[in-house]
Design brief:
The protein has 164 residues and is α/β, with parallel strands linked by helices. Helices cover 46% and strands 23% of the residues. The longest helix is centred in the middle third of the chain and has 20 residues, at 75-94.
């Protein structure tokens, strides 16, 4: 199974592409898709949509796992990132790919085994589970790989959106 994990954002969208077979991971790719503040908000959404669509075309994943948003203070940021996340969901839906979503607590639980784990603990486990030489950089890419690992470990077979 090929899983694309996403750490949603408007300026930086983290992604991680892993193959999961027989309880073993093979990292296919990871990194970030970025937009510049000089671009208008609609342009930034289009850039993310187009770049993510290209990534999905390249890897043809079985599933996309995306982290739910958690904001407790800045409502404006939450709305902006929420709109970007919607575009990211749309890119997968338009490709007919099943989408799964996980809370930050579920991601930590799925990777470390403890829902209140520190970011550094999650990053170290991502490195260990994926047999990488170092912690993936930037943090957004490491977070996206953690989302993909969480999905693989979850046994979750019910998509939040099923468009086929």
């Amino acid at each position: 199974m090929v899983i694309v994990g996403l750490d949603p954002g408007i300026a930086i969208l983290g992604y991680g592409v892993v193959q999961y077979k027989g309880n073993k991971f093979n990292v296919l790719d990871y990194g970030v898709l970025t937009t510049e503040p000089k671009n208008s908000f609609p342009e930034r959404l289009k850039i993310l949509y187009d770049d993510l669509t290209q990534l999905l075309d390249k890897y043809n994943p079985d599933t996309v796992a995306i982290e739910e948003l958690f904001f407790n203070k800045n409502v404006k940021t939450a709305i902006t990132v929420g709109q970007a996340r919607g575009v990211q969901v749309l890119a997968a839906v338009n490709k007919g790919i099943d989408i799964y979503e996980y809370t930050p607590l579920q991601v930590k639980q799925g990777v470390v085994g403890y829902g209140r784990a520190k970011k550094k603990q999650v990053q170290e486990m991502v490195k260990l589970l994926l047999n990488l030489k170092s912690i993936p950089k930037p943090d957004d890419a490491a977070d996206a790989l953690a989302v993909a690992i969480c999905h693989a470990h979850s046994g979750n077979f019910r998509s939040m959106f099923k468009i086929k």
